[in-house]
Amino acid sequence: WNAERRRRRRRRRRPRRRLVSSFCYCLLFSSELWSVNRAWRGLAKGTLSYVTPLYQFRHTQLKSYSRQLSAFIAAEKQEGLAVEVGGLQNTFKVSFSVLRFRQEDPPKTVWCGWLSCINGNPEYLQSLPKDFTCLPLFCSKGAEDLSSLVKSWLQRTFDCCFGPLDINQTTLQWLAALWTNCHMETNIQNLKMIWTLPVLPPLQVTYTVDSDDVLDLWRSTRESSAEKSREAEDEVCIDFSEVTRFMQGLMSHFYRHFRVDLSAGELNQVSSALGSAKVNGKIKISSSRYLISIFSLLTECALLKMPI
Amino acid sequence: MDNSAKHLLQRLVRRIPVSMLKSTLDKWERLTAEKRKSLDFTQSKWIITQELVALCEKSELTVKHITELEMIYLTAFCLFVCFLFPDDAHSVELMQFKELFKSHLRELQRNVSVKIKKHTDQAVWIRVAWGDGLSSPNHLKATYVVLYLQTPYVFVNALSSKHKPLLLQALTLSTRHQQIKAANLSGQKLTALRDLLMRQYQQVSQPPLMRHRMARETFGDGMLPALQSAVFKLETKFKGPTNEAMTQRDEPFICSVKFSSSNLLESLRHCASSGIASTPVTPMLSSIPLKGRNYFVITDNVLTA
Lengths: 308, 305
Hints:
Chain A is of the alpha+beta class. Chain A has helices spanning 2-12, 36-43, 62-78, 122-127, 144-158, 169-182, 211-221, 240-258, 291-305, and strands spanning 23-28, 45-51, 54-55, 95-98, 111-117, 132-133, 137-142, 162-164, 190-197, 203-210, 266-272, 275-278, 282-285.
């Protein structure tokens, strides 16, 4: 019978699935599903980690994963390993879903997280062995012990590992430029950047620029072109050399006053009314503008940090 | 032009393929355009060499100029500059550097061929041919590094991303610095990059001893009062050397800067002594201890409020 089943399966085997470079799966501890419009809002805050590729992760098995994770947490609770599990009551539900289909608003959520891969590098994705799914970006928000349990279960089930995602300097600079660019449509209030200089004791420099002025600076550093001033809905065409010139402009204005070279230090944090990002992986995104671009940058960060 | 210069030039021209000779001479700029035009590159190499030597003699070029030509040829591809940090680290002796660099690099990668040479103008040239555990060094794709031991600048070309971390680590360790960072400066003319940086370096940076002294004079000696922050509200016009649109703007560039630390004055003193803050220290920062204030509003009329 098994041999027969195998034969049948071989014949039925579909051609290799078209490469999907963007996927976002959410784990929620709640009993309802989220609406698309509001879903990202609650999820776009938390601590980022990178995840190595997941072995035999099947998006068709989400219900089963929900049950398994639920059982795992209940078992851990019972063994007294996590007595007060992040405020979970005795009855709780785990829900594993794809971000896309949602209907209703959620009730109180005690923990949520997501796994994602947005515009992942196709060469890398293609180089992975067949059974591996790459969702390198993991974000968790909620009690730390619940985060550990979920990661532990994911590691066990899919043979993957987690590591802290340091958001690199390049990404922080991109975010500064992207958020400044947004000021043309949404008031970002100001652009705040925090540097640390390597002296003893360490010196922190918080450089906050008025939103209209920083936008003027940004626009002056962009190559002038009529087409560029009209951007598509979600996509923005920015060259990294423009970002570099923008940052250099900011740093040289600073240097002219203080004669301190900010590039000798490290940019640790960038924030505006649209969100904030820190080098230690903590992010908060308060606007859906450029969400795809931001997640693409973060996905790239995660792929770069991957040890394999 | 003395014999050593002539000899050097002849040897050098022999190495440069004719196809690259014209462009290399153009970049060199030590011979006027007319003189360069007078060279006939369709002739045999030997004749070209003779003519070139004659032209250089007429222009009274020296060994220093010839080494520039060598640098241009050898680093004809894109160069990028790195900056060793902190720049007040004790500079090493050449012999010591040579030993350290070779040993560090060999520890990191087997089968590398390293040649180090010092030029007359204090430049140290390093040529690294990379191999690996299985193959012998590839001399056709060597990496060239130029550094000036008294400065924190390193010029690198032809470096693959695979070898980059190894080379940078070996450089950092052998020059006794703590880290090396890309300086956001690259180009094709080594001499131009070098002159740009040296001029800036001389203008801006003072010898370490002087910096230490000025730092102590500005902020004080020994234990400093543990002030924790200082805030500057800037309402001045935008100041940036390369941005015309912004510098022509009439309105001020409104921003605020907050410095914070567990001991701000010590941090600032260390900034000055390590070169992160240029000395003499700007009145903006020296006003903190001098005027005993830590909140300032700076406008164009009153640059030190």
